[in-house]
Amino acid sequence: MSTIFSQIISGEIPATIVYQDDLVTAFRDINPVAPVHILVVPNKAIATVNDLVEDDERTAGRMLLAARTIAAQEGIDESGYRLIINCNRDGGQEVYHLHMHLLGGRRLGPLVAR
Ligand code: 5GP
Q: Could you give the C-alpha distances from 93 to 16, 22, 41, 86, 101, in angstroms and in order?
């Protein structure tokens, strides 16, 4: 099923795109929780991590490589950052188009709320 992220990738809906290649797109989160908050998403609409298949191996790997590139672009590679992928209800996933949050620019604190 198509989500708002597919429309951002295709350019139908505006977003601040910071990186795009043949497999992934990255854009600034509309509601940032850190000075740097970027979403790295596959161009192909994959709903969740559960929906990844063997053929998506290059895409999944590219998400990490893109995050590395963007972190350097944003100047937070040395200070550090966090990559998060939420899956389904308990993971807190809201948009059902696979995405990795790239967060940085400040000390992020504990991994999860207790
Ligand atoms: P999730 O909770 O699914 O892991 O994260 C979804 C993220 O997408 C949230 O951080 C939310 O702020 C962001 N988001 C939702 N709708 C839009 C949108 O239309 N544009 C952008 N740039 N980000 C969005």
A: 21, 25, 13, 5, 11
Q: What is the DSSP letter of 80?
A: -
CA of residue 95 to ligand 1 center, whole Å: 7
> Does the annotation count 101 as an active-site position?
no
97 neighbors 45 (Cβ within 8 angstroms): yes
Instruction: Summarize pLDDT for 35-77 with one digit per residue, the tens.
Output: 999 999 999 999 999 999 999 999 999 999 999 999 999 999 9
CA distance 23 to 95: 19
